[in-house]
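Batch 3, record 17
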Amino acid sequence: MAITDLTPGFSDPVRDAAVSFRIILDAMARPGEVKSLPVVAPVPAPLNAAAVCVALSLLDSDTPYWLAPDLRNDRIIGHLSFHTGAPFEPDYKKAQFAFFPVEDLATVMQDLSIGTDEYPDRSATAVALVAGFGATGGVRLTGPGIETANDLSPVGVTPAGWKALERNSILFPLGVDILFAGPESLAAIPRSTRLTELEA
Amino acid sequence: MRNENSNREAALQQAALSDDQRARQDWISVLSTSPTARLIELFDAVSDTPEFAFLRKPESGLIMTQGRIGGTGGAFNMGEMTVTRCSVQLTDGTIGHAYQAGRDKKKARCSAILDAMLQQPERHAEIMGTVIEPLKAEKAALDAARSKKIAATKVEFFTLVRGEN
Amino acid sequence: MYVAVKGGERAIDNAHRLLAEDRRGDPSVPDISVAQIREQMKLAVGRVMTEGSVYDPDLAALALKQARGDMIEAIFLVRAYRTTLARFGNSLPVKTGAMKIDRRISAAFKDVPGGQILGPTFDYTHRLIDFKLAADGELPEEAISSEEAAPHALHVLDLLAGEGLVEMPEASINDEAPGDITRTPVEYPMDRQTRLQSLARGDEGFLLALGYSTQRGYAKNHPFAGEIRVGRVAVEFQPEELGFPIQIGEMEMTECNMINQFKGSKTAPPQFTRGYGVALGHGERKAMAMALVDRSLRAGELGEERTAPAQDEEFVLSHCDNVQATGFVEHLKLPHYVDFQSELNLVRKMRKQVDGCMTSAAKEAAE
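Prediction for the assembled complex:
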């Protein structure tokens, strides 16, 4: 059970985690704005830089997390366990954080925890890995944190994926918060955001 | 019921630890229970300490300590303890870890390096002899001296009528 | 209702300066070091650790120095500090049966294997002020036995398990993840494990008074100190990266097993039941009081009628935390000007009405 294949996490864990946390917070507060990440940590493949920053800043021993089979290997589970103490949860319905390729958005979103009326905060956070953010297409976002409207186009979201996000926004105050994690930047669509699909 | 309770520990302890693991358990406990100043003094006296990189820089945090109801029953949380941990990797790939009560970062760093060196066949005997064995002996002597003072406070009842049977 | 009041920053700043100066006291008297507090005010340090719920003698000593000896203020400082630290995990349950004993007594059984070991105790002192201590710190000659104390003194009560006259502590279904009031919101009724966590960090004075009340007849439970032990236990933790448990340090702690008469119920035969108490460091009074209250809170489980405050779980547990208690009581010092103004107006209005009635009544009487 020992973890032997280890690499460092953030080079300055306290400062880097705080910086990274601030970026994630800003992204959540300004839905659809793509935020670049000034901090770097070694990235065990096939995760990407933003996903690693999210994991190292937000996971701890109280947050069971799930990795899609495509992203899962012993090295990553060991790495996250060593640096965050978070337990890997094989059943994504029970996970508080779910990391998966953005192509799986529609299927994964169906079963993630959306919280309860008493505790809406007990919902899951979805971290969808994307190759980047496009200039056109995607969705127009409105709602809290957006002055008029923001357009966001994460590469690789399927039409079914967008439908799943629309359904999610209707559940508010329940629902899942979504982070799109790219190789050098991230953006968020929290549950409070309304979506309209744009023509590509 | 006690069996049920001790299952968890038994499972952990008996998980067929190899001799190497048991030996490592032993030196780690010597390092974690020794006085900070003395450990650092002995560490500084070691020549040729190897190059290393941090896998995890020394950081302080908490571990929740648990007790058992009545001493042997169900587990419960008694209160936390400050703990400092550190992990290093030597240039040959050997990894050393330290988890120690308290907030001393230097002690954790020295202990992690020593834990790694103790796993290197070429340095093992030397570090055992110059660091681990002296620390272990000093601790044992302190404990024995304390225990003798404690034993002196044992009540020797002298009973006028012995028992009923 | 609180209204932000501006101004006073300079006064506050100056009050902090004065506080620092007064904390230091007369500068012609040497400053007290944290190590001196840790070594010579050990029982105060233990209490701060127990109720601050963090084992770290140096930290507790520093908190006491900063708090000018105010226990609850020091406990508050420790509680605030712990919130800044990440939790690495849970220890394995400590084995108090393998404690390196400093003291171990039973008030119920005289001839316990391993013997009655008094250790450093106030119990048989005469409580006379020792003026010699003011003059010099000279120590009496030390007494040393030729042999060491028995290394692993068994729990006294375990020795009686065979007869079945004393209940054995139950195993629990959630042994791997006992309830944790620092992680999940408190809900009543609480299981005994979670209750013990709450009592362990509870105020010594409050629990002492409640424990005392049970002895005086409010939830009578005929206690005997089955065993009290003080000493050092190994704290073990299993890091994922190692895959086996390691010792991370030693912790001084106190444990009390009370035994209480129990007449029996429909399901249980007459036997002795138990209450359990612990303290970090050397804290016998706390451990004993906690054991009494643990037992009285088991009223429901043992089918006893709940008649006294010490049996009321919600009452006891929601008031035993002195940081919460002091926060709510002491917040009354903060400006409530608007609150009070509105009540003042209300009382004036009511008074006017009453005065009005009285004048008209007087008028009627005169007519």
